[in-house]
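Section 5.1 Outputs to date
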Amino acid sequence: MARAGAKLTPTVTELGGDIDLSLEEIRVPAYVLDRDGRIRWLNSRARELFGDLQGRPFVDAVAPEGEQSARTAFAKKLLATARTTDYEIILRTAAGARVPAEVHSTVLGNGERVVGVFGLVDITGEVAEPGRMPPRGLTPRQAEVLQALARGRSTAQIEAMLGIERETVRNHVRGVLRALGVHSRLQAVAEARRRGLVH
């Protein structure tokens, strides 16, 4: 059994395994970025969803409204103000579809400085196909806010996830309530589930 604090690569090698092969085959999208924010490696699941983005800026996989929060999380790790970050974001698939996700990432270092970032992507909702119409009576943004409410997200979390102002989130929530003919977020989620608008 590996001792506490043992380095991962030597430990896996000692067991007769291959960490590269394991990360390649894991069914969760994984990636490595260099210090310039370019994608240096993607596992097969990430390539399946987002295409072969190797060598391209990581924001090429991010929906426009999420670019600022993604760049901020990346900068925090480069500047050593945070070794890890976890945040919600809307990503874009290779086909142009939008997909809500949580990104969990950590610095890669050589003991003296940060050399890059390793991350995993947790897909948290359904892929919204490009051109897919939002539910009747809702704008595309209101539909995104409704999905976030159904996942129990707060106003602040929706603000960060969509990269919009808090008051804008509140305006979208009011629009959702009006469209569904309800008076609270809880009623909105219940009504949306009844209509099959969210799962």
